[in-house]
Amino acid sequence: MVLSEAEALARLEALRRQRDAIERQIADLLLYLDLGRRLGGPAAPAQPSPDARADAPIPVPEPTPQPAQAPVAAPPAPPSAAPERPPVPAFAVPVEGEAGLSETVLARRYGRALIEAVLAVLEEAGRPMHASEILARISEQGFSLPGQDPVAALNTRLWKRSGPGGPLKRLGEAVYAPADAEEA
């Protein structure tokens, strides 16, 4: 197969565009991994794709000469006095034999445990409580809620569980008590 000069140049340009796209993807993934490490996320073991052969060499793109650019400022260093995260409750971590559980299953398990903790707090207090009081007590047990307003997030969860047949009853704006046994 003999290519003309124009065909060879066109093919070479197409390969260079592919290489540039791959290098951008690599840079994006490296930034993503670095951000994950900085935020302290769980490190997942690298798993090869199912279609990758173990004996196939991994192609390494040749570096392309880049035009001189102004130096990029380094990202700011994380603050030295970062607030400590509360410990992850034991029920939120998969135990042996449950490593394959999806995030959805673990999130539902966490949500059920959160409601159980709220019920225990309400039973212990023996009185109706506001969502902010409940959040303060369950935070001591290691529970956390996402978002900028955790009280609102907890209030939404409790409101959804305070319907007919639910374990809670809503007595006022963000005030909850356990549902009576005869109501359930």
From TrEMBL:
Full protein name: HTH HARE-type domain-containing protein
Q: Biological process (GO) annotations?
A: regulation of DNA-templated transcription
The answer to keyword Lipid metabolism applying to this record is no
- According to the entry, every stretch annotated as the HTH HARE-type domain falls at 112-181
Region entry Disordered, spans: 40-89
Give the Pro residues compositional bias ranges. Answer: 58-89
Residue ranges that the Swiss-Prot or TrEMBL entry lists as coiled coil: 5-32
Q: What is the lineage of its organism?
A: Bacteria, Pseudomonadati, Pseudomonadota, Alphaproteobacteria, Hyphomicrobiales
Q: Which UniProt keywords apply?
A: Coiled coil, Transcription
**Species:** Methylorubrum extorquens (strain CM4 / NCIMB 13688) (Methylobacterium extorquens)
